[in-house]
Specification:
single chain; about 120 residues; 7-stranded mixed beta sheet
Length: about 120
């Protein structure tokens, strides 16, 4: 069982930056691949980024490639999402997720989400 708690969301102007954090409980954090997803009002949840167990492999959605960076610190049981050059279309609730498999799809464990609002 893994419990995930996101933080770091907020209101930012277009072109600004935010860093999201996701703290995980449990002793086996390094056994899980981690992902970030987002859901905007009226839209389906979409994949944003994923990182492998040790952090050597990352995958990004085309819409955030070059602007967002996913990273993890296994000693702190935390995964991060550094978001730069934010756009109004990045406004969404952002969720972190954990799964033993590395994927852009289904994850077993989810956080409660943190709101990111980008003003134009």
């Amino acid at each position: 069982q893994v419990q995930l708690v996101e933080s770091g969301g907020g209101l930012v102007q277009a072109g600004g930056s935010l860093r999201l954090s996701c703290a995980a409980s449990g002793r086996t954090f390094s056994s899980y691949a981690m992902g970030w997803f987002r859901q905007a009002p009226g839209k389906e949840r979409e994949f944003v980024a994923a990182i492998s167990w040790g952090g050597s492999r990352t995958t990004y959605a085309d819409s955030v490639k070059g602007r967002f960076t996913i990273s993890r610190d296994n000693a702190k049981n935390t995964v991060y999402l550094q978001m730069n050059s934010l756009k109004p279309e990045d406004t969404a609730v952002y969720y972190c997720a954990a799964d033993r498999r590395y994927s852009q799809g289904e994850y077993d464990y989810w956080g409660q989400g943190t709101q990111v609002t980008v003003s134009s």
